[in-house]
Write a structure and sequence with these properties.
Helix content of chain A: under 10%
Distance between the termini of chain A: 6 Å
CATH topology of chain A: Porin
Strand order of the largest sheet of chain A: 1-2-3-4-5-6-7-8-9-10-11-12-13-14-15-16
Strand content of chain A: over 45%
Number of strands of chain A: 16
Radius of gyration of chain A: 20 Å
Number of helices of chain A: 0
Largest interface: A-B, 37 and 31 residues
Number of domains of chain A: 1
Oligomer: homotrimer
Shape of chain A: globular
């Protein structure tokens, strides 16, 4: 898991205070066992507290079995699109936040860090196959496996394919049908990132959505590590084509910097979203 | 703890779908310390998620001290009858389920895997003494130690005695007065299992109850391990003498098979209950 | 963490039963990582079940970084006054309870063992500096960092200074402004304890409060270890100057004894509070 804490300024936050301390503490509780045949059976609970939570519950359980490159998950599974290694690649700073791209992603199911949000009978199955640098994952989630789903609700299906070429080029594509169980909320994502130098990468992400509030978004992003080997500068520019009430611009952008302490990192960023509100943060994150 | 997942078919389940995925993830969080005198003081929390739970809480705590064969428990204790090594011996397959015997047991308190069900002031004490292959356990539970119990509610008392003879014959007897705190809900259980061969056992269970919905139940059961040493076939036939509305027969039965993967097991079973509904399951369980 | 359980008698408890079993189980879940620079980043969750709780949640997270004697905490922090090594020094027996002193302390924030009591947006920061035997801690808590605080509510500030002289004399002083966020609930504490012999200590605690229900309290206390090195006798006398309805006396006192089992301890005490009610307990505690 990890811990992170810092200060966030959000212009026009709607709260009395636009500047708040935002922290998170996440601990995974893992257990596993191996069989004679070399299969590994495992399970995970997660305890995650976010700023604004009164206390902390564990989430629904994830069970998996893995062997020979194939992993099958049941329960609170990692969905295909959420497992993309690039869909969150525009995120900046200690909180890994991107108002311009991952902040406007259409709704889809993901590993539930806290609870099922009242969907007690939610059930998921996922499978991943890794062959060398090729990864393929499929996932299936139903909001209620016991009763018929209400009108407008469908089962979510997802597919992900990822490939790394020559340690230089990363490709990731994902398709989700009925994202978060919403009928016809189909989502397509494609991303590519190329290491133009050993210490510099540039990437392009595109997501299309049937959700009129979210629309299609394209982002170009990159990061550059300074000669000290510790300071990483990152930035993105994103364009979103929707026209909801309150939207001021089709362009959002952000720039951030992370300093590696060797086990922890300091990060700061400044971004501007599609409402032309500025968001700035500074804080630290450590993994354990 | 352990994890288990599989598919269950329940005829006339009353839900829209008679076939569902049923999973559980259980992790025990144990801590203990030893004193100079050789006493061991310990405690346990349990995190248990079952299919149908929105998230996971820890349960009420169990504290114990053990030394020289005597264990004393306080708090969320293991009750006498629930600790019987034979009362659940008719259970089949990956879920350890038996619609014909343990499915119709009268109500009694057990170690609470999740919460006290609103009985915040519930309090329990239990003691167990082990002498060679003889085990004796007594337990006491009150639903409310702070206030007078409401009319119809009493404290539950339980006794258990178990003996293993020559590694061949297992005997288990338990008596519970005011099971689950319900006045006059007295329960008597006796079970015996004999290893007729090294790889075959046969057993007989009997439980009597004052609960007119549950009545008296007798079951004969056995299991046989094939020559591969991994495949275990198990079966039971049970007879229940009550006559509640909807009951179609006095006889229930089931047959199951488990295949040991060496650290995990695959299991399947088919059973028929007293309403003449069929229940079938197939899945896997792994312990860690 | 630790476990403790025992029997408590409380005269005029207001419940049907004046005698109850009182248990607690506390487990801390810690994680930390160190950086190249020698900084330690860490975090803590706590699972705590008390008698009377239906189940157990984890509490809000605490994050900290420590290095070169300085520790900075964010989130669910340890407040200054609550971290005093002497403010709880009058407590007796297995439950560490003192009806005459810590039982009448005015309200202040402390590390939340379970939840924020509905103050979801509560946020705290604390810093501690240790230099040899001098410890200084400051803490800041706001009940709501997102919205303006309601009338009568303010941010709590706290300061603590502690010093140990020659392994013999312990001094501890704390000041808290707006304790528990209550405007003008200012609290001042001073305590001193001196080891008059290697096996005997005597101390004096004083706390002043603006809270008319709590008032000013002074306590003299001491403990003495018998020649067996295991039996510790402890006692206190306290005087409280307030005059609320139901108060019968200005003097409270108690005497207790603890027997060290080497990893666990047995404790018993008898106390009389300001309502002239007697409280007696006997039980055990073990740390792990």
């Amino acid at each position: 898991g990890y811990g992170r804490t810092g200060v966030v300024y959000q212009e026009n936050s709607g709260n009395d205070n636009d500047t708040t301390v935002v922290s998170r503490l996440r601990m995974n509780i893992d257990a596993s066992t191996s069989t004679d045949q070399g299969l590994e059976f495992g399970a995970r609970f997660r305890l995650q507290w976010d700023q604004g939570d009164d206390n902390t519950d564990s989430n629904p359980g994830l069970l998996y079995v893995t062997g020979s490159g194939l992993t099958v998950e049941v329960g609170n599974v990692n969905t295909a699109i959420d497992s993309s290694s690039l869909i969150y690649a525009t995120e900046l700073s200690y909180m890994d936040n991107s108002v311009g791209f991952s902040g406007v992603l259409p709704a889809f199911y993901a590993y539930a860090a806290k609870d099922y949000g009242g969907d007690n009978n939610r059930m998921g199955v996922a499978a991943e196959y890794v062959f060398d640098t090729l990864t393929v994952r499929g996932s299936y989630i139903t909001a209620d496996q016991v009763n018929d789903l209400p009108v407008g609700t469908e089962e979510e299906f997802g597919l992900l394919a990822e490939y790394v070429w020559n340690d230089r080029l990363e490709l990731s594509g994902a398709a989700t049908w009925n994202g978060e169980g919403i009928e016809d909320n189909d989502i397509f994502f494609i991303g590519a990132r190329y290491a133009v130098m050993d210490n510099a990468r540039i990437g392009l992400n595109y997501v299309s959505s049937e959700d009129w509030m979210k629309g299609d978004t394209i982002a170009i992003y990159g990061d550059y590590t300074l000669a000290d080997g510790r300071t990483n500068i990152e930035a993105y520019v994103a364009n979103n084509d929707q026209d909801y009430f309150g939207k001021e611009t089709d362009n959002a952008f952000g720039v951030g910097v992370n300093y590696d302490l060797g086990g922890a990192r300091l990060g700061g960023s400044i971004q501007r979203d599609y409402d032309e509100n500025v968001r700035a943060d500074m804080g630290l994150r450590f993994d354990f």
